[in-house]
Amino acid sequence: MARVIFLEDLCKGCLLCTQACSKNIIEQSDKFNKQGYKVVEIKKENLDKCIGCGFCSLICPDSAIIVYKTIKETENV
Fold first, then answer.
1. How far is CA 70 from the centre of its chain?
2. What percent of the chain has pLDDT over 90?
3. Which of 7, 17, 62, 69 could pair with 52 in a Cys bridge, judged by C-beta atoms 3.0 to 4.6 Å apart?
């Protein structure tokens, strides 16, 4: 399971992350940050669709996205 955190105060609403998302689940929200930019979000019903690829974080020019991916335990052979 993956988790994405958007640092809203750093987001400038460029929407590059929406284009980079391989699952097309990142979208512009109705919220504004302190600088007056519309920020991005993943709606609650789509949170489980995130695979933690990190493309959104890599393309963000303001480092406003943090991606956490759960590492699956492997069986010792």
1. 15
2. 86
3. 69
| Side chain identity at residue 63, one-letter code | S
Amino acid, single-letter form, for residue 47: L
Answer positive or negative: Cα dihedral of 43, 20, 24, 29.
positive
Distance CA 19, CA 55 (A): 9
DSSP string for residues in 16-39 = HHHHH-TT--EEEEEEE-TTSPEE
How far, in Å, CA of 24 to CA of 74, rounded?
29
Output the CA torsion 22→23→24→28 (10° steps): -100
29 bridge partner residues: none
- Domain annotation for the chain: domains and CATH numbers: 2-69 (3.30.70.20)
For the entire predicted model, the pTM comes to 0.85
The residue type of 71 is I
